[in-house]
Amino acid sequence: xxKHNKNQITLMQYIFLIHxxxxxxxxxxLPRELAEIAGxxxxxxxxxxxxxxTVAGLLIIQVMKKHPNGTILDLITxxxxxxxxxxxxxxxxxxxxxxxxxxxxxxxxxxxxxILPQTDMxxxxxxxxxxxxxxxxxxxxxxxxxxxxxxFMTTWMIFFYFSPLKEAHWLHLLPVVKEGWIPIFTxxxxxxxxxxxxxxxxxxxxxxxxxxxxxxxxxxxxxxTLLILLTITIVIxxxxxxxxxxxxxxxxxxxxxxxxxxxLERVEIVFLSFYIFVISTTVLPLMYSxxxxxxxxxxxxxxxxxxxxxxxLNLVYIMFITQTFDRNDQLSKLVQPISLFLAYAFPICLLxxxxxxxxxxxxxNL
Amino acid sequence: MPFFRRYKKEKKNQLSIPKQQNMPSQNLISSEIVENIAxxxxxxxxxxxxxxxxxxxxxxxxxxxxxxxxxxxxxxxINNDVLKPLLFExxxxxxxxxVKVALGQIKETNTWKNIEDAILQxxxxxxxxxxxxxxxxxxxxxxxxxxxxxxxESSLRGAxxxxxxxxxxxxxxxxxxxxSRELKIKEMTIGERGKIxxxxxxxxxxxxxxxxxxxxxxxxxxxVDFIINTAALAEYIEDNPYSPFPQLFLTExxxxxxxxxxxxxxxxxxxxxPNVLIGPVTFETFFKSMDDYSVRWMAASFLRFMRYFGFFxxxxxxxxxxAVISFxxxxxxxxxxxxxGASREKVPFPPFIEAIIMEITLEMLREAxxxxxxxxxxxxxxxxxxxxxxxxxxxGIVSNIMVxxxxxxxxxxxxxxxxxxxxxxxMLRFPMMIAASLFGFVGLTVxxxxxxxxxxxxxxLGTPYGSPIAPLRFTDWKDLFxxxxxxxxxxxxxxxxxxxxxxxxxxxPEGEENW
Lengths: 366, 515
Prior knowledge:
The complex is a heterodimer of chains A (366) and B (515).
Chain A: H1 11-22, H2 26-38, H3 42-65, H4 72-80, H5 82-114, H6 121-136, H7 140-154, H8 181-194, H9 201-204, H10 214-239, H11 251-254, H12 267-297, H13 304-320, H14 325-365
Helix pairs in contact in A: 1-7, 1-10, 1-12, 2-8, 2-10, 3-8, 3-10, 3-14, 4-5, 5-6, 5-12, 5-14, 6-13, 7-12, 12-13
Chain B: H1 2-22, H2 33-43, E1 50-57, E2 62-69, H3 75-88, H4 97-100, E3 106-109, H5 112-120, E4 124-128, E5 134-137, H6 167-177, E6 183-190, E7 196-203, H7 209-221, H8 230-237, E8 249-251, H9 254-263, E9 266-270, E10 276-279, H10 297-326, H11 334-344, H12 351-371, H13 374-394, H14 400-414, H15 419-457, E11 459-460, E12 463-464
Antiparallel strand pairs in B: 1-2, 2-4, 3-5, 4-5, 6-7, 7-9, 8-10, 9-10, 11-12
C-alpha cells in the first residue's frame, strides 16, 4: 500500500479529475438526444440524472472508506481473494479500455467531421496518440495536474454560450412538464450516462490527500458537471425551436455558428479545436485506469509499456475497421449496460456485502 | 593475425604508460631535501613554468626549497611575504615558520598527492631539509577580469555587478548579500582531470535538505574528465535531458542568486565559470527579471503579462497564421481575408514554405549578429532588415503579412528575459509550424497538448516544474502574472520546498503616527 503514498493528489485535482472525465464528447450531442425523447423538458432529466449519480458516487466513496489505502482492486482482493481480484481487474480494465476507445474514436470522428474532413482517421488518431502517450505513461499525479490545468484553460469556452442568448426565446422552455413526466424519466437513461466517468473515484480514492473530504469533493465535481450540462442544454433549448434541435447532429457546436467577432468568424471551428482539450480530460484518466488495471492484472510495476500497446491496438483497430458515427453509437450502446452496472449497481451490492461481512466478522471477533 | 596481436599489445602498452604516470603518488615526503627536489622534478617533468627556488633559511640556517607555478601565483606575495622574511630576517628568539611568513593560511602536509594538488592550484610549497613536512602557502593569484556589468541579464536599476571567472570571488559576491551564518557552503571537487571546485550555497534553516541531498548526490555521481562551465554541469545533472526547457537556472547576477537563496533555493558556484546555477526552479522563474523588483509593482506586473503573451505569440503566432491561411480561412472576416489575399497574391509558395523561409532567415540573422563584433553586427541588421525584408516582399517571395508575423514573433521571443528559455521558445515554434501546416488548428491543439503534457510531467531536482500553474498553488500566484507588492508576499513559494515557509515579515507600519 506504500505505492500510493508518493502519488498523492490534492482535493482540487481530485475534483477536476472527476469533473473532467464526466464532461467530454457526450456534451456535444446531449441536447439533441434529450430533445428527441423529452422535448424541451430534457433539462429536468439532467437534474434527476445528477441526483442519481451523486448517490452512486457517494456510495462508491462509502465502499472505499472500508479499505482506504487501496484501490477497488485491492478492496476486492481483500474481501474475495486473489482470483476474484484478478477478475475484477480484468473486468474493470476491459470496461475502461472499451469506454476510452469509444470516446477516443468518437473524438477523432468529430474532428474529421467538423474540421478535417479529408484527413484519414488513422492519421488523426496517430496524432492524438502522441500527447496521450506522453501523459498516460506518467503516474496519477501528472494526470491530475493536467486535468486541473486544462479545466482552467478551458472554462472561458462556456462564455461563448452566452452570446446566442441574445436571440433566445425563453418561451420554448414553457410550459414545464408539458408532456407529463414519462418522457422526462425516459430521458434519464440518457442523462445518467452524461455523468458516467465518476467511477474512476474507485481508483482515485487511495491517492487523495484529504480522504475525509472525498464525498464533498465528489459532490462539487458532480455539481460542476451539472452546471455545465444545464447551462449548455438550456441555452440550446432556448435558442433553437423545439423541433429544430433534433435536425442538428451536434447542436452544441451548431449553436456557435451565429457567434461572430470583428476579427473572428466561424467560432465553432476554433471552439471544437480547443474542445479537444476537454475531451482529452475524459480519455486520459480512463486510459490511465485501463493501464492501471492491466498492470495490476499482470502484476507489473510499471504501467507505461501498456500504454503503448493499448494505443497501438487502437490504431490497428481503426486501420482495419472503418469507423462511422453509427458504429460508434452501437458500440457505446453495448457498453452502457456495463457502465450502469459498474457505476450504479456494483457499489450498492459491494457496500451491502462489505457491511454485512464486516458485521459478521465483528461479531465473530466478539 | 600476429601482426594484429602485436599491434594490440603495443596499443595496450601505450595506454598504460600515461596512466601510471598520472597516478598520484601516495608516498610521504622524505626528510632529505635533495630527494624531494628529485621527486618534484619527476612529477612535473616538462613543466617550464615550475619554479624551484633553493635557498637557505637564515633563522635556522638550513637549506630549503620553495616550489610554485609561476603563472598561478601572486609574485608580490611570494617575494615579500615568503621569501623576504625567510631569507633575510633573524629574530632573537627561536620563532617558527608560522610567525615568520606573513600569510593568512599556512598548511602542513606530508603526502605527495597533496603537494601536487597544492602546486597545481597555485599554492607555493616549502620544503625544509630535515623535516618530514612541507608547508603550503596560500599564494594564489592569476590573471583575472574585474567585476563588470552583466551582459545578457542586464538590468536598468538593479545592481551592475556580474559574476567573474573566479569561484571564490563569486562566493564573496553572494555572501555580501547574505551576511548570515546560516549561509552554508558545501564544497566538492569534480572532474578526474579538471578538478573543478564546486560550491553549493544554501540557507541551512530554509533550504530543503532532501533537495540539497538530491543535488549533492547527482553531482557526486559524475564521473567525467572535466566540465568546462556551469552550463555543462547543468546538462549533466538536469532531470530530463530530452526536454526543450531549461530545468536549472543559470544566472550571472549575484543579486538574483542571493534572492533565490533567500527564497530557499540552492545556488551552485562553479569555479572558472561566470555563471551560477540555481535549482530547483520552476517555469515561471524564467519569466522574471531582477528589474521586476526594482520598479513599482504595477509596471512589473504589466511587463510580466507582456512576457507571457510573448511566450505564446512566439510559439504559436506563425503556426496560427499558417493554420488559418492554409486550412481555416473561413474563420477570418471577409475584409481581413481580402487584404491577406491581396498581399499573398504574388507569392507562389504555400504559407508554410513562406514562413519557413522567413523564420530561417531571421534565425540566421540573429545568430550572425550574436557572434559578430558590434561594428559588423550593425551591417547584419541593415542587410537583414532592408535587403531581405523589403526586397523579398517586392520580389514576391514572401507576403507583407508574413514579414509582419515573423517580425512580431521575433520581438515576442526577445522579450523573454532568460536566454535559455528564449532559445527553447524559438526552437519550439518550428514543430508547431509543421503541425499547423499538416493539420491546421487540430495540429496546433495537439502541439499545445504535447507541450502541456511535457510541462506537467517535468521536474527540476524532484520538484514540479510547472508549479504554481500545474500543480495549482494559488498562494504562490502572488509572484506569477501579477507581481503583488512586496509587503504582501510573506511566504516563500511552495515550489522551493523550503522548510521555513514564512519569510521574516517586515511588518507594515502601524498607521496612526506614521502618516
